Each structure stands twice: as C-alpha cells, then as structure tokens.
TrEMBL record:
It comes from Citrus x changshan-huyou. Its main location: membrane. The chain crosses the membrane at residues 7-32, 52-71. Pfam families: Romo1. GO terms for biological process: protein import into mitochondrial matrix; protein insertion into mitochondrial inner membrane. This is Reactive oxygen species modulator 1. It is found in: Membrane. Belongs to the MGR2 family. The lineage of its organism: Eukaryota, Viridiplantae, Streptophyta, Embryophyta, Tracheophyta.
Amino acid sequence: MARETSCLARVTTGVAVGGAVGGAVGAVYGTYEAIRYKVPGLLKIRYIGQTTLGSAAIFGLFLGAGSLIHCGKSY
C-alpha cells in the first residue's frame, strides 16, 4: 500500500511541477506572440491566458505520464 501512495504522490508532484513550468513558459511565449502579432486590446489578455493554460496542461500531462512510467522502476 505504501508503494501506491508513493507512486500517486510522485505522479501528482510531476503534474504540479509540469503545470508550473508549462504555465511560466506559456506566459512568456504568449506575451511574446501577442506583441509580435500585434493582437489588439483586451484580446492580448485572452491570448496570453489561452497560451498559458494550454502549455501548462500539456507540460503537466507529459511530466505526469513520465512520472507514472518511472513509478514501477526501482533503481
């Protein structure tokens, strides 16, 4: 039972770290793209938000999946 809890904790941590890193990268990239393509007015905020959430979701998904794959391995 302790191993399952440990695995769940690892996957949860992987998703959280991936989401944080993805959100940071997405915010920077979204801001750059919004300025580069001259997105008008308040649409900039929407564009940056979409990019941030999308990147956070993708990074979190892949880091969580990687943590799940590594859960079964013992080093």
